Amino acid sequence: MVMRAVSLIVLLLAAGLALAQHAGHPAGAARVALGASVAFDVRGALWAVSSGDNHVLLRRSADAGRTWSARLPVNAVPEGIGAEGDARPKIALGPRGEVYVTWTKPLAKPYAGDIRFARSLDGGKTFSAPVTVHTDRQEITHRFDALTVTRDGKLFIAWIDKRDVAALGKRGQYRGAAVYFAVSDNQGASFRGDFKLADHSCECCRIAMLPRDDGSVLALWRHVFDPNVRDHAVGVMHADGRVGATHRVTFDAWAVDACPHHGPSLAADAAGRLHAVWFTQGTKREGVFYGRLRTDGESGVDALRRVGGDAAEHADIAAAGTRVVVVWKEFDGKRAKLRAMISDNSGDSWLERDLRATAGASDQPRIVQHNGRFLAFWNTQQEGFVTVAVQP
Amino acid sequence: MAWHRGVARGALPLLPFDATSLSALRKTHAGRPFVLAFWSVYCEPCRDEMAEWNALKRRHPSLPIELVCTDAPSERALINTFFAKYPPGPVRKWVFSDAFSERVRYAVDKTWRGELPRSYFYDTAHKPQIKSGKVDRGWIAAWVDKQQGRGR
Q1: pLDDT above 70 (res B6)
Q2: Taking CB atoms and an 8 Å limit, are A85 and B99 in contact across chains?
Q3: Contacts of A17 in chain B (CB under 8 A)
Q4: Architecture of domain A32-246 in this structure
Q5: What CATH number has the domain spanning A264-392?
């Protein structure tokens, strides 16, 4: 009995060791960071970034995730890569096959970070040395990078920034943080910035960005409305640094001083209607929600719908034509399920699908589309990168 | 599984918290109130809450406060640096020992989606008052008074 118990422990230790080594970590080192991002290029190849051993790791799949290339380190010199909660490396592809990658490099001071950028102009074979995107070099919060490329090839990078808090010092109180951004119109050779999109964002949620036909970028983020209501706002960034007014779009009344690490997602259908998913624990409603942003000059959403059950979390959304797809994950007591809801009439009615499940740790899922073909992407500890084609 | 092994070394022991820990705590604290508080080194409001736990422990040394860090045991150095700078007082300190964090959260509270800080104030019957975000000092004081009124 004792021998059997000892053997079991040895086995378990060996399994743990194998798992840790498989993931590229020395045994007993950091929790396997599963935070990953994914994007299609214009030809329909799928690109993913994750992190390991202080490198952003790039992989490419020509067959929608059935097989993947070997991992290519984006940063030659190791450095910290934020990959906890809503933080993770990001990837976007340019119209001429440019591969753009951003991440947050944590600094020694708590909550401080730099937004880092590297690019490849040779199809992901080699990457430029990483640069810090913002001109502000204080050791303060510049975190939760978001990255997108407009149709005309301009690169927008936005992030959560606390310089306005630092500027006030002890003289005053500043609600939350701010959203700043920078723009490149030369394939990331240089950036213009730092432009402020909005004061008073939440401190630790991802920012959703959506390029629009006129070359501007619409952002959706968790805001801190006076005094501490963490509902959502939208705002427009222009390539020359101009910004539109901030509009409140969710009214859930979540008054809290907390880190949700649970940012929103945003997509546009062919008719330009805007579809969003977000999380709240407000007094009006609790859970993950879908809604169409009002574009008639009124604030708020219509077609409001709850996403999943009580354990639903980390939804993502994509749209093409009149089809809208939402994916999220939901723990059922034993396994984490990857679930989807699909609408073929721009969010008026929906059907739900269970896509996959895992009995181990998993990342937030993502949904991406290319030419109207939707693909769910999920990084799991046990099965690695999981991709599932999503259709009704 | 592998992560428990990292916990033994280092100056400050962090107890491993997993999906079985709350039911064990309920037994340990049977018939008396306790506080279960979750936090992370990456969460700014959590930093501000440490002083509240410290003050509560000083005023009510016999009230058990179980303080659970949701980061990995491998973050021990960072966690200890944090405690040195923002001391929570003589509370019992834990760290998530299961990478499958949904499983741990579900065992505590099926509706908790991971926002931090997250605190559970269990009365003598172990019915919890649940708080997301930094808990107000006045609210804590009122809760303690209520527990004492019930014969603590």
Answers
A1: no
A2: no
A3: 2
A4: 6 Propeller (2.120)
A5: 2.120.10.10
